[in-house]
Structures are given as structure tokens and as C-alpha cells.
Amino acid sequence: MTHRTGAAHNSAQTRSKVDAYSQYAVWQRISRMMMSRHSSALLRCVAVCLLPACSHESIEADAEDAKTLSSSPKGTSDAQVLAASRGTHPWCGSGRQQNAPSFLITSDSLGPVSSGMSRARLQALCPGLKDTVLNAGEGDSTRGTVVRFHGMHIGVIEWSDAQKLDRLLISSGSVATVTGLRVGSTMRDVRLHIGRLSAGYDEAGVYVWAADVPSRLSFLLRWEASRVLRSPDDVAQHVDLIPDTAHVRTMIMDARK
Fold it and tell me: Which residues, 6+ apart, have CB-to-CB distance to 157 below 8 Å?
């Protein structure tokens, strides 16, 4: 009985050593793969999160790094991309550029600002941005952050109660979509580049957005619906009554969609 117990103990020690060696060998193999420029961003994220000290915050940061790498332009090294994403983003410098820059917005990101990002993440990428309190309507307020790129006012972010990005409200004409739509564009431009539109109304005014393609982008217009419609809410059924001369006064990236 004693002999069998001792043998089982020795066998357990042997298995433990083998398991430890196997884990070490796997880690070494993953490390070599990570050194390759062609290894995937997803593999890097998984490999890092095998470490015992992997925390919830590091998992979130690594996932965002993987997203950053997967969407980075060809010809840009991983080190350059991650240095920009982990440190101060190039757009977040305080110096104003000599030539007015144009910032490209997609349906889910504007430079360092991306759909679903946390307030802490933005603070890491763009230190020094000022917080503010925004009117949420009906007497309510919400926490916000004023966004500035290269010293230029861009707009403001609305945060959710969980401190995740809810909406980015852009008031600067320096931000444009890939088709050139921006604050100041006309309704004619919007129709030309987007096609069929949906519309809605709230206390801020009339909004339009793409009807046929899922998108987080919408456009708040400088136009008073009450001059044409009995009720401004009716604009949802009468998008065609919005004149081509109406101008975009705010672009919105809504992360809740």
C-alpha cells in the first residue's frame, strides 16, 4: 500500500514536470511566432493572455491592439502602429498644423476615437482632453469629453454610465467621410453620396442617415421641419420634402447602433 502511494506521488511529480516543460515549449514556440512580422494580431493577443498576470484591463487593451493591427495600413510596422495606439496618438498633439488637415471618419472610428472604446482608453491615447457636462434633454445631463486634434476643436463625446463611448458629435468641417461629406455639406451632397435616406426628429432637429446600408453615421441638418410639416416627427415619412439646400450642422457617430 505504501509502495503504491509512493509510486503515485512520483508519477504525479513526473506529470507535473512534463506539463511544465510542455507549457514552456508551447510558450517558446508562440514567442518565436510572435517575432515574425507575418504572425497575426489575433495570435499576439491570445499569446499575451496566456500569461498568469493577464488582467481584465490588459485583455481589453490587447483586444484593442489586435483590432488596431488588423486595420493598420500595409507598409506600416507593428511597432509603429502600437506605439501610436499605446502612446499619445499623432492627432492628439497640441500644435496646430500649418495647412488645415482633413480627418477621415468611418462608420465606427475617427483616428483614436473608436466605437465601444472606454473613457480610460481615450485618456491614454489623448491625454489632456477636457471633460464637460452635456444636456441630455428633459432636464437630464451626461458626462462628456471635448475632442481636439492638432489644437483644433473637433466635437464632443457623450459617455454611457459604464464610461463607454455612446456618441461622437462632430461640429468641425475638418472631419470628412471617404466620399467627402462633412459639416457644411448640403442635403444634395448627402443624397448624391448616400442614396436613399431615412430621417428622424428630436429636440436637436432633423437627422438623416443611410436607409439601405448599416451605418453608425447620421447627419443633423440646419433646417426647420415645422416650416413645411404640420409636425416635425412627420419627416420620417417625408424625407423627400427636405430641400437640397439644407446644410449639415453636425455629424454623429452613434456607437449604440
Answer: 113, 122, 144, 145, 147, 165, 166, 167, 168, 169
